[in-house]
Specification:
By secondary structure, the chain is mainly alpha-helical. 63% of the residues lie in helices and 5% in strands. A nine-stranded parallel beta sheet has the order 3-2-1-9-8-7-6-5-4.
Length: 931
């Protein structure tokens, strides 16, 4: 906001020349959108809150710029004076103004990215991360369409949505933001009259005013089913239409534009943890899981029914004008539709019959339908039956000169049935290995008193569990009263078995074991699944048993654990029954919290290489499931680069990857952006599997250098986080970790236990807290010290060798690129204000002094290795984005510090806590990938 703008009667909350990146032609439309939205927001603040609030926002913004840009000490004192002088009511208004600017700037940036991609597509430019470029590269390598179809027939690309306490946006605000994005998109693509332009302006103003008068934060804490509902909204926004559309577009590309494109196997399938992830969440019960599956099924069946209704309206073909196949005629004759108006319209009759059968399916599942069917019909038992009826429509249209009609809504509906079935998304079950251990201990003790399973050595556990797998009788008895936890675990597994009986194996295909430490952890789950009939004593399984390796030690042992499992006949038979495919999940978050960014990245890379070798030796196909978060500290970063940086053989046509926290809304709340991100996953999987150069064995000197760097970084990180006396107190005082727990942003507790130990804290709030105070420590700490020490120990190679690693090795490039991004979002000046929240002056000086020195050292060494003069020099788009938003992001940090001081001074004012929560929302929006 600017006071000079107010004198002319308008309020312009926007970038000033010189505050962001230098203007360019590419930026012109973006800057115009930001100015337009900023002006509307400024007018809204002025109209709703008054001139004084409007001017106060501008004073804070300008002072914050001086402090951030120049580390201006007088500016810091002036800023503190301004903030100290504000009432809590003024503070809340200021926070909302800066927060909403971040939200609106995000919308403008997303629209600009869409605009630029469209311009490149119209110019015929092949962009990295697109299927068109991947197919062109394949053609250059001599890989023809038939070979690519064969590849996709065995491929799997699966984004898995998870609910984590880092997504602070409400659906109500997201809906308004989507409305704004839609208006901007229409303005971009439409030639408007003056009246239409005025109406568009008014629609934007209406949406912004509505946003301003809408609560940014939830008033009540989310339940698990609330999280399920929020997750399902992204199917409406993106997945239901864009997943089928991507398959159809790829079919056409492989067919060279021919209308009769051969059908491609469905390879892109959605997954979810929301409602199935029990690890640390006591609110995910059998009842909740059943409710989750019903909500998912309701959403997809209602979508199919709506599409069938529209399809019936479209297929008005008359029998005397268009021939039909015998199968179509038979399908039409089975329709219960009595209307004489459709007697000569066989396609409409057939569609009404399909609708009636699907409505009966919904009724059987106790799902309400908005439009009643024309009559009674037999329910479908499987989605394959529905697909066969739709295929009859398709075949008749194709055979009778109506191929172009078949390629419309019907084509996408047929594909949707393949993608989503009657269950919508594959729901994973997840539980901690410690819970399984306690459950097995109680079951064995009840069945054979004195077994004392918990105290058995690993070999004895394996022997006992293997014998149990071969035993036909159940272990659990209906005549024994088990403890609450055991009863709950068995109930969830029985609910999974019921779901399989209702929807088929695709509904819950994975059972994931958090904190896997040994082979017995997987065998425990196999025995528990046998209790409910999902594993048979004959050695067959209806579900994939998936280990999750999370800590540094577990990553180092994972290949050995899998090797020992594959050597067990009882387990190997289960793998064979799953098509000789074994999924392994790798945890980026906890390994980072455990060992730091550099060591986590390197141990994950080495683990993949070791797993590839073990799986190849046993004749088992490896499918990796990457548990990546939004932030770099939790494995985040560009998906395309991350997939291509995998070791050779790690992807092999199949990959699952988590989409977590605020990343879900930033990637998939807009259909165009969502389609782009889905295409990136598909293109990267294809390229990493077929088009990457065959990786020869890594040079020994590369491995030796990375191993030494990792050890040095690990020592520096562990020394600070786990070995420095008072570090826990420093962390809890200098971040918003306490206040995050008060936000109504997730059903899961922030800590596994009620302690202040870093070991017991979940990785998600750990990373989120460091992001809020703008240190981003999990994304870089230890790198600078490691490089300095390595260069001193290897003077003959020196920094030039590390520069070679950066040029030649995709893994090292991606590692440093992600660090470049996270450091660019950090601010040591702002972090110093959070450090002042630590009451112990000696502790504060000691720890922040170390952090500040390491921050400067890490930036210096990073830039030297990359050959850059400044952060993000190689990524001008992101550099512009970050610089543009800092003038509106930084004030939120300063306000947050003031509010934290007031809150921790035993303030009982609820508005103070509310203000803190609002700043958390605004900072998260400004950073975009903070958790």
């Amino acid at each position: 906001m600017s006071s000079d703008a107010s004198s002319s009667g308008t309020s312009d909350l926007r970038l000033r020349d010189g505050e962001g990146s230098p203007p360019s032609d590419d930026d012109a439309l973006l800057r115009a959108d930001i100015r337009r939205l900023g002006r509307i927001l400024g007018d809204t603040v002025r109209d709703q809150e008054g001139e004084d609030v409007f001017d106060l926002v501008e004073r804070i913004r300008q002072t914050s710029i001086r402090f951030h840009r120049d580390d201006d000490k007088p500016a810091r004192h002036e800023l503190e004076s301004i903030l100290d002088g504000m009432t809590i009511a003024e503070t809340v208004r200021i926070v909302r103004a800066f927060s909403y600017f971040s939200h609106l700037a995000n919308i403008a940036e997303d629209q600009n990215n869409i605009r630029q991609r469209r311009a490149q597509d119209m110019a015929g430019t092949e962009r990295p991360g697109t299927l068109s470029r991947a197919l062109a590269l394949a053609a250059e390598r001599g890989i023809d369409s038939d070979a690519l179809r064969a590849f996709f027939a065995k491929a799997l690309v699966s984004p898995v949505l998870t609910a984590h306490p880092t997504e602070v946006r409400r659906k109500s605000t997201m809906d308004r933001e989507m409305e704004i994005a839609s208006v901007l998109d229409v303005r971009e693509r439409t030639q408007m009259t003056a009246d239409e332009r005025a109406a568009s302006d008014e629609q934007l103003r209406r949406a912004v005013v509505t946003l301003w008068q809408t609560n940014l934060l939830r008033r009540t804490k989310l339940t698990v089913l609330d999280e399920v509902s929020n997750g399902l909204s992204f199917y409406d926004y993106t997945f239901l239409r864009e997943v089928p559309r991507l398959h159809c577009a790829l079919e056409d590309q492989l067919a060279g534009g021919a209308l009769d494109a051969p059908e491609l196997a469905t390879f892109l399938k959605m997954g979810s943890w929301i409602g199935g992830d029990r690890d640390g969440n006591p609110f995910v019960t059998a009842e909740v899981m059943r409710g989750t599956l019903k909500m998912q099924s309701t959403r997809i069946l209602q979508f199919y029914l709506a599409e069938l209704h529209e399809l019936g309206a479209e297929l008005s073909l008359a029998a005397h004008l268009a021939d039909v196949s015998p199968d179509l005629r038979a399908l039409a004759e089975q329709s219960p539709d009595p209307s004489p108006h459709r007697s000569g319209e066989p396609y409409r009759l057939a569609v009404s019959g399909i609708y009636a059968r699907l409505a009966a399916t919904a009724q059987k599942l106790r799902i309400e339908t908005s439009r009643p069917p024309v009559g009674n019909a037999k329910a479908y038992d499987t989605p394959q039956e529905l697909r066969r009826d739709l295929d009859v429509l398709h075949a008749s249209l194709v055979a009778n000169n109506s191929l172009v009609i078949a390629r419309g809504r019907l084509r996408h509906l047929r594909r949707a049935v393949d993608c989503f079935g009657f269950h919508l998304a594959a729901l994973d079950m997840r539980q901690n290995s410690a819970v399984h251990e306690r459950t097995m201990t109680e079951l064995f003790e009840a069945a054979a008193p004195g077994t004392n399973y918990k105290n058995l050595q690993e070999d004895a556990r394996i022997a006992l569990l293997s014998r149990e797998l071969d035993t036909a009788r159940p272990l659990a008895s209906p005549f024994v009263s088990y403890g609450e936890e055991t009863v709950k675990e068995l109930a969830v597994l029985r609910a999974a078995a019921d779901a399989h009986a209702t929807f088929g194996e695709a509904v819950i295909p994975q059972c994931i074991i958090s904190m896997t430490e040994g082979a017995s952890d997987l065998l425990e789950v196999a025995v528990l699944l046998k209790e409910v009939g999902l594993v048979a004593p004959t050695g067959t399984s209806q579900i994939n048993i998936v280990p999750l390796f999370e800590t540094i030690d577990d990553l180092r042992q994972c290949a050995q654990i899998m090797d020992s499992l594959f050597a067990l006949p009882e387990y190997r038979r289960l793998v064979a029954s799953r098509g000789d495919i074994q999924e392994v999940m790798l945890g980026y978050s906890d390994s980072n919290k455990d060992g730091g960014f550099v060591t986590s990245g390197w141990e994950l890379y080495k683990a993949e290489i070791s797993l590839i070798e073990v799986f190849k030796r046993h004749g088992v196909r490896l499918r990796l499931f990457h548990g990546r978060g939004g932030s770099v500290g939790r494995g985040g970063g560009p998906s395309y680069d991350a997939i291509l940086a995998q070791p050779g053989g790690a992807v092999n046509g199949q990959i699952r990857i988590t989409e977590q926290g605020e990343i879900i809304s930033s990637k998939y709340s807009n259909a165009d952006v969502g389609r782009h991100n889905l295409e990136i996953l598909a293109a990267a999987t294809l390229e990493a599997s077929l088009l990457q150069p065959k990786h020869s064995a890594l040079r020994d000197e590369y491995i030796a250098a990375m191993e030494e760097l990792s050890n040095l970084a690990y020592a520096a990180y562990r020394n600070l986080v786990y070995e420095t006396e008072g570090f826990e107190d420093y962390f809890w005082s200098s971040t918003v970790i306490n206040e995050i727990a008060t936000l109504n942003i997730g059903s899961r507790p922030a800590s596994r236990t009620k302690t202040r130990r870093i070991e017991d804290l979940r990785a998600i709030p750990w990373v989120f807290s460091w992001a809020q105070c703008r240190l981003m420590l999990p994304g870089w700490y230890g790198f600078g010290s490691a490089v300095d020490a390595w260069v001193q120990k290897n003077p003959d190679k020196g920094i030039a060798f590390l520069q070679e690693l950066y040029r030649e090795w995709p893994f090292f490039q991606t590692l440093l690129s992600n660090m470049d991004m996270v450091l660019s979002k950090s601010s040591i000046a702002i972090a110093s204000r959070y450090a002042d929240l630590v009451p112990d002056e000696k502790l504060r000086a000691a720890i922040f002094g170390r952090i500040r020195a390491e921050w400067h050292k890490s930036i210096e060494t990073l830039l030297t290795i990359m050959g850059h003069d400044r952060l993000l020099q190689g990524n001008p788009l992101l550099e512009r984005s970050i610089r543009n938003r800092f003038p509106y992001l930084d004030p939120l940090n300063h306000v947050q510090v003031e509010l934290l001081q007031a809150h921790r001074a035993q303030s009982t004012d609820e508005q103070v806590l509310r203000g803190i929560q609002l700043t958390i929302n605004g900072i998260s929006a400004g950073l975009r990938n903070s958790g």
